DNA sequence: CGGACGTTTCGGCGCACGCCGAAGTGTCGC
DNA sequence: GCGACACTTCGGCGTGCGCCGAAACGTCCG
């Protein structure tokens, strides 16, 4: 009882950090996995710099955000992958209501965000689904009895020049499903998801669009996805399967 | 921007439901997977019945809880497994601080809760870990590249008289890891975890202690765990490995 | 039918918190 | 050094919300 009492206040304190609309908007923005300055977040959330400063202080004190001071700037980012996953999960649980994206302008070609973007540190959007499905189709990822890379999958990463065993750090799972809120199906996250995204950016398969989390698939990326995963070059542009 | 704005308020609204200590305590209590009456929850949380009634109204309206009226009673339970997982995840993220359970009285034999309990609808506590480890050791559960049942694992369930394919409903994963806040390691949750827990209760492997979520392993359960998983009969009493 | 009981509705109280603008601190660049 | 700039601290204001007790509502049981 005493124990649960303590757990109750800890849970409430954690939830309270995300229970404010301004702080929630900040955390969602930080889901792109990058560090933002306090001022950028203030403008993004539409509040005065002083207000943003107080919010960031709370989020850092609560352990949700990590900060790094550089000169007159205060950079903040999500504390770690585990925290990012928590925000994702909450957003996914809260998100479902807008079930009908019926606007023709949006449904037609789809926005750049819907096509390809990062979700903290891995690929998401239609590109994320495309890659996840291709991995599954080729027997590199097993989704039938859970969500795990097969031995062939690990070798596939090695062939790409990515050493997953070395990338594995701490308790973070090698592969886990991440359900984001535009596509409704899970895509690859975890150590392998992060490694793949890092490799894709490093190898020029895709580049960031502007300052946001949206990505653009390059010509090199199109051929790479075709040779490594058998994904048709125009698959990303085609209507959602 | 507009879109993220909406996502922000949705996230904040969801988090606000758990941001109150009283509501948090209620949700944690409901993690035992059973339905409680409004009065029970009021007493458990230490607030007036009128206050509890308002809180429950919010939680139900927010979709976290499902209610069932029976005569003059109002029974509530967590809305679904997905919601339970969300509360679990938040509690696990909030919990870690109490890192040192050094009290001799607790560390020695351990409380009944620490030994065996339910976590929503699956086994948790030392028993949960014991079973998960045994499944892994026997090659029925693969944790090396993710968290998934092997084909042998599915057959093992069949041998137990549990048809996992039939139990599989909707999008709920067959096997997923659940990290609870007394043991620090993941144990089996998802459809398979729920089926195993259901089988254990139905077959008299364990019984509920009182009205809470604590479980007691029976003599029959001890032999069953030994024959089916090779778990030593006194393993549950031994100090944490 | 009437009393016991679980639950709900309604005021009313008080605190906690989010917001801002103004003023202060520290860093950068000329 | 001296402005420009990013951020922080500090009052002060308003609102939202959690709490309770009193009273109303429904159900159950004798």
From TrEMBL, chains A, B:
Q: Which Pfam families match?
A: HTH_20
Q: Which InterPro entries match?
A: ArsR-like_HTH, HTH_ArsR_DNA-bd_dom, HTH_Metal-responsive_Reg, WH-like_DNA-bd_sf, WH_DNA-bd_sf
Q: Name one GO molecular function term.
A: DNA binding
Describe the location of the HTH arsR-type domain by residue ranges.
3-98
Name the Gene Ontology biological process terms: response to cadmium ion; response to lead ion
What CDD domains does the database record attribute to this sequence?
A: HTH_ARSR
Q: Which SMART domains match?
A: HTH_ARSR
Official protein name in the record: Transcriptional regulator, ArsR family
